[in-house]
Amino acid sequence: MPLIYKICPAALWRDAEAAGRFDGAPVDRADGFIHFSTAAQAPETAAKHFSGIENLLLIAVDAEALGEALRYEPSRGGALFPHLYGPLPLAAVRSVAPLPLGPDGRHVFPDPIEG
């Protein structure tokens, strides 16, 4: 089961849990799809888009459970990033883990990140 990852503010994720689905963060809704990263891409995504931000969660999602709504498309540096065209069903979520800031100000990821 390949996993993809969403970095999400904890409060926004709690709202999604209450609603039973995740429709994306404001940037996702503006772009028309939910941004995800692979295990290899997630640390760079955190550094580039979430630098210094606390109270984040790392959401691991079963990519196969998303079906044809998930597309891998070129993004940063031409790398293929997973984009979900539609809401994220919570049934596809495999884990939700805190993504704390370390003493150096960078986010501390689980070791290893499963991919």
TrEMBL record:
Gene3D superfamilies: Protein of unknown function DUF952 (3.20.170.20). It holds the Pfam family DUF952. It comes from the Bacteria. SUPFAM superfamilies: ADP-ribosylation (SSF56399). InterPro entries: DUF952 (IPR009297). Signal peptide: none annotated. This is DUF952 domain-containing protein. It comes from Methylobacterium nonmethylotrophicum. The lineage of its organism: Bacteria, Pseudomonadati, Pseudomonadota, Alphaproteobacteria, Hyphomicrobiales.
